[in-house]
Each structure stands twice: as C-alpha cells, then as structure tokens.
Fold this protein.
Amino acid sequence: MSPQEKDLYKFILIIAVVLGIIIAYFIFSIIRQQRRTLSLHQEKILAEITTLENERRRIASDLHDEIGPLLAAIKLQINSIESEDESDKMLIHKSSTQIDEIIGKMREISNNLMPNTLVRKGLVSALEEFISAINKTNQLKLSISTDNNISINKEKEINLYRMVQEIIHNTIKHARASQLNIRLYVKDNDLILITEDNGIGFNFDNRLRENSGLGLRNLSSRTEIMGGNYHFHSQPGKGTKYVFEIPL
C-alpha cells in the first residue's frame, strides 16, 4: 500500500470514527429524551390519579364525619316532635324515613368513593364485598378467585380496586354479558389479574374513538403507573378477556 493510500485510509477511518461518535451521540440523546418524556408522562399521570384519589378520600370523609352526623341529628329532632294530629304524625314518619334513605344513599356514595373495607382489610376483602353487592342487584353474575398470600402496598391496592370497578361497570354498561369471572393471583414476582366475560365483545379502535374509550384509557394509565402491562382479547360476539401483570 502506497503512502498516499495509507493516508487516505487513515483519513477515511478517522472520518468514520467521528461520524460513528456523532451518530451514537444523537442516538443516545434521542433515547435519553424519550426516557425523560416517558418519565414526565408517568409523573403527570401519577399526580393526576393521586389528586383524584385524595379528593375522593376527602369527600368520603366529609360525608361520613360531617354530613352523616348532621342528618342523624336532624332525624332525632324530627322524631322528638310530639303531635296528636294524624297528618302531622304521618308527615313526621315520612320525613324520618326519607332521612334514613338519604343516609343510606350517602353511605353508599361514601363507600364507593373510598371503601372502608379496602382501607381496613385490604384489596381481596374489598373486592369480595363489592362483588357481593353487585350480585345482589342481579345485573351481572360475578365470581372471583384469589390467592391468600397477596401482599401489596396501599397505592397498588387502590389502583387495582379501581381497575376492577371500571371493568365491572364497563361490562354491565356495554358488554351485555351474564357472567364475569375474575382471577387474582401471584405468579413469580408478578400479581396477575384476569377478567373474562361472555358478552358481545368490542372493537378496541372504535371504542377509543368513542367517549366510552375513557374507561380503557383509565385502565391503561393505572397499569402504567404501577409499572405493569396488560393485553386483552375481544372480538364481536366472543366476549372480552383482560390480563394485567403488575410487578410486586
């Protein structure tokens, strides 16, 4: 190889190395920016969900600790009224009954906002209680099977509870299903949540374009902030199956 060829070879080699370094730097910068964007996106979702759950907790507490006792006091005052007039007695009884209905409805709303069972006894007990209440309405036949050794932090418990709520409500509202089966168990170091109904199924892209796609986005967001992933199988006329994998 002549000296000129050697110099040309060195020059080309230097240019290739410099270009390689530049390309590697840009690729690294793009990856770093994508990671930063993803991290900011996850932080935003987490902040939104945390704010939502804190507001639900506050409203539930206000209903239970302030409005509830106030209504109970009003009922006590109404019942203490003495009257010989039959129409007045009927009015007092009707008012007392209506206050009982309001208190019952308020407790239901408070429990939906932040179930006491979820706070005191954990995810499995809260799901069993919620499913039992749905079964009593005869809107949908629900079954649940769970492991006894499930142990996760409170934030994940709340997210998983909301996800199951969302799936049940979507099934009742859209699926025209008569049965929904729920499984919750630990596999390796993941918590697996599987739900499967016998409804009419749906088209994912069409659902996202509609307002009803908001529920799917909520499921995706809560799964994302827990560092998990999910997939589902659904075809028109063949029901819907969700599979969530949440790292412990």
Residues 82 and 88 are 9 Å apart (CA to CA).
